[in-house]
Structure prediction request, 364 residues.
Amino acid sequence: MLTGAKKAIAPLQVLLVGNREEDFFLIRDMLERNRGLIAVELEHARSLDEARELLQHRPYGLVLFQHDAGDAEAVRLVTDLLHDGRPIPFILLTEDADEKTVAEIIGSGTWNCLARSRLDGATLLRTIHNTVALHSLQLEQQSAEESLRKLSRAVEQSADTVMITDREGIIEYVNPAFETLTGNSADEVRGHTPHILKSGEQSHEFYHELWKTIVGGKVFRGILVNRKKNGELYYVEETICPVGDHAGEITHFISNGRDLTERLRLEEQLLQAQKMDAIGRLAGGVAHDFNNLLTIITSYSELALDAVPQKSPLEAKLHEILQAARRAAELTRQLLAFSRKQPQALRVVELDSVVGPSQKRSRD
Prediction:
């Protein structure tokens, strides 16, 4: 078996609709004699009902209509097939159909009309080839148009901003997401440059390098700080791509942006929470060590009180040391509670008991 052999091309399936047997045999003979030019398999439906049945079950690539099949019925069959999503090319074989009838049938999906008096092998093959080729082009055009519609809907409904500028940076298009984010309508920015979004947070050198990158045919990626219409700043992850023509010359730039403002705000909150957690752990460690020192101060102060005369000046000073140590111990307990994220119990205090000793120490 030859692995390099070309795959055989499937013959074109053609259906002839009409009750003239002589036309069927004539067309079949013409196609057989020219089979080297185009491979065709011809079938015959003698009525429109039979044609409908065959068209529903077999993938025909072309339908030949005899005029005797009836103008109105032919138009109705073509219309039904088109509405069913089966755009099959048609050729009308006629001799005396009026222009209105031909126009109606052509408008319904028939791309060609062939007079019986001119029916010969060369003319038939040329008409079939042109009709099938035109049909193929129209299918390609419809496919391209559908792709463009899908692309347009994707851009219009994208959550990311899309901006298209010409080679000089003049804005030609922005999508609804851009309008929502910046507060600028498409009419307001069209004809301007992206300079209207400049916040002043980036240096002139930054924009110079950006422009140098995209003009050089490379893709720019980075985070920009831009300004909305109301003056509010926002962060956007920007990707700017150059678009070239068939000769490779840059004609446009496409900018795609994703709003990072909320994400960066949440990241800042998380960073702040991590800082507070680190501070809490540090405070807990310091408070634990300080509390050990206060235990020594308190213990030796209490022992010293037992060794001094009552109501002596030294006794009063030792009481001051004990009260200060106990207040310091209360502060260390608060630091430990903060480091462990324990809930604080609020209570009413008598200010005289807190302020009085401080006033006494200041007078002394």
The chain is about 55% helix and 20% strand.
